[in-house]
Amino acid sequence: MYVNRHAPHGTIYPLEGLEVALIGAAFDQDVSMAFIGDGVFQLTKGQDTADLGIKNCAPTYGALGDYEVTKLYVEQESLDERGLELNDLMNLTWEDEQEDWAEKPSIRLVSRAQLSDLLEQQDVILNF
Amino acid sequence: MYVNRHAPHGTIYPLEGLEVALIGAAFDQDVSMAFIGDGVFQLTKGQDTADLGIKNCAPTYGALGDYEVTKLYVEQESLDERGLELNDLMNLTWEDEQEDWAEKPSIRLVSRAQLSDLLEQQDVILNF
Amino acid sequence: MKFSVMVNEGPYTHQAADTAYHFTRAVLDAGHEIFRVFFYHDGVHNGTRMTTPPQDDRHIVDRWSELAHDHDIDLVVCVAAAQRRGILDKDEAKRNGKDGDNIAPGFRISGLGQLIEAGIEADRLLVFGD
Amino acid sequence: MKFSVMVNEGPYTHQAADTAYHFTRAVLDAGHEIFRVFFYHDGVHNGTRMTTPPQDDRHIVDRWSELAHDHDIDLVVCVAAAQRRGILDKDEAKRNGKDGDNIAPGFRISGLGQLIEAGIEADRLLVFGD
Amino acid sequence: MLHTVNKSPFDSHSLQTCLGLAKAGSDILLIEDAVYAAMSGTAVTSMVESAMNSSTIYALEPDLKARGIGSEKMISGINLVGYDGFVELAVTNDKVQSWL
Amino acid sequence: MLHTVNKSPFDSHSLQTCLGLAKAGSDILLIEDAVYAAMSGTAVTSMVESAMNSSTIYALEPDLKARGIGSEKMISGINLVGYDGFVELAVTNDKVQSWL
C-alpha cells in the first residue's frame, strides 16, 4: 500500500509517489493507495497548474483505474479537518470486468480505525 | 538578524545557518540571532554526536562571542513548550571590551512580544 | 528598487525554486533591478547542467540560465553548500581533484560573503524555500 | 533475513541518509543480508562522486561506495528521480547529450521496477527520509 | 513588514509561528502549500480569521488555482495577488520575513 | 508492526498521525528529531505517555545522545536501543511503517 501524506504541487512527493504506484501496478502487484493528512488534497477537483508552468499530476489519478489501481482509501477524519467532503474530490472510477465492465467508484471513504486495520493487512507500506 | 527555527542534527539548516552568521560577523555586520520553536534545541547542553559520526556544531556557539556575535535571543514560550529552562542551555558568554573584558552572558531570554518588537527593528531577516 | 533573491530548495523537489523564478521575473517585468540571486542549502542543485527533466515538464535550470543571459543576472551558488552536495565548476573540480564539473551556464560559485553583500546592497532580500 | 533499504533524502541536508547507512551496517553486522539499497526522491544525491565535504566531516558518498565494495551491496539510483536532479551515469549522459557523468563508484542507475522488486524479494523494506 | 508563509498549516507550525510574531498592521502573504490556510471551514480557519483583525492576509492566485481553491471555498476578506502583486507588496513594505 | 518516526513532534504532525493509526500492541521507534518526543515535561509528553498504554515506545540512543537528552530528562518507561536494537525490532515485527 502506498500512503500519500503530502499536498500536491508544493513538493514532488505526490508525483513521484504516483510514479511508484503505476510501476507497482505494471508489475502486477495488488496496489492500493491511502490518502491521509494533506494527502487528501491530491484528489481535489479543479486543480489547474497552468499559471505555475508546473506539470499537473492531478489528471493521472483518473488513469489509475486503467492500470487496475482501484482502491483509493481516503481518511474521513483528514477530510473533516480540511472542510472537505466526497463531493470536493475528483470522480475517479474503474470498470469491473467481472460485472460487464460496470463503472465503479475508486475512492473509498474510511475512518481512521478502518485505515488502521487496512495498514495492518499490507505486506509492504511505502509513504509519499 | 538570523532566525533559527530548526532542531540540530536532523537537518543541516542549523549548521549552514551558523556559517552565515559567522560570515556576517566577519563582514562587520551587527549580527544578532533569534532562537524560536525547535531552534532552541540548538543551544541545549550535553550534545554529543560522536555515535552518529556527524560533525557536532554545538561547540561553535561557544565561539560566537569571539566573533562579536553577542546577542542570542531565545524565546521563553518556545522553551516552556519544550520543558526547558535557561539552565538547560549552554553557558555562552562574551567579553565586553568597554568594561575591562568583563564576561557577560550572550543568551537573552525574551518573550514572544519582545521578539516581535526586535524583528521589526531589523534591516535584514534570514530564517534557518 | 533593487532586489536580491535567496533560493534554498532544489528544483522539482520543492516548489520554492519555481516561486523564486516567477518572483524574479515579476521583479524584472515591473522595471525593478535584481542585484543577485544566491543559491544556498539544497538550492545549489538549481545550478547543475546535468538536469534532464521529462520533455513535457519545465526545465528549471535552463530557465535560470536563460534569465541570466537575457537580463545579465548574477546567479551565485554558495561554494560550501555546493561542495557538500556535489556541485562544482572547473576551478573547484581542479582544486578538489575531481574529473569533471557540472555547473550550468550563467551560474558562478562563490562564498557566503556574496549573500551578506546581497543583503547589504539590495533594498529587499527575499528568501524562498527552507 | 533479507532486508531492502530505501533512501529518500540527500546527504548532509537531512540526517536520514546517515541513519540509513548506520542501519544498513547494523543489518550486515547482525549477519543478515541486504538485498538492495534504493535511492529515490532527493536520495539520488547520495550517488554523486562530485561531493566534497569539509575534511573534518564524514564522507557520506564514499561510505556507501565502500560498503558496496566491501559487502557487494546493490546500490540503485532511480533513473527518473536522478534525471530531474542531475545525476547521470555514462549511458544516461550519452543518451541525453550531456558532456559528462557524475555517478559514484558502486552505484548504478535503473528503473522504479527495482524498488518494486526490492519490496517483493526482501523480508523487510525499511524507508528512510521523506 | 511583509511576512510570507509557504507551508501547509495542517502539516507545519510555520503559519502559527508567523501569526504569533507578526505585529498588528502586518501584511501576510500565503504562497505554495500555505494557500490551504485561505480555505473556509477548516480546522485552521478560525486562527486565520482572528489574525485578519490585526493583519491583512493575501494569497497567491496561481497557487490557489493550482490547488483548485476557488473563491467560493475561501475565507472572505482574503486578498488575491499574482506574482506582480507579490512584488508590489515587497516594494510597499520596508522588509520581508519568510516563514518556511 | 514497527512504526518509525523521524520528525520533531513540535514541528510536524507525523508522530500524532502515527499514534492515531498505530494499533494496540505496536512497537514505535523514535529516531532523528523525533527523539525530542521522549522528553518529559514538554507540551507533547502527555500524548506520548497515553500512547504508552497501548504501544511500546523505543528511542534511538545515538540520536538522544546527539541531542543531549539524558535519561533524567526522559519519560520513564521508554526503551533505549542502538542501531543493533533497531535491526532487532525490524526482525521481530513482521513489517515496518515509516512516518516521515
From TrEMBL, chains E, F:
TM stretches of this protein: none
Protein name (Swiss-Prot/TrEMBL): Sulfurtransferase complex subunit TusB
GO biological process: tRNA wobble position uridine thiolation
InterPro entries for the chain: DsrEFH-like, Sulphur_relay_TusB/DsrH
Pfam family, one: DsrH
Gene Ontology cellular component list: sulfurtransferase complex
Signal peptide coordinates: none
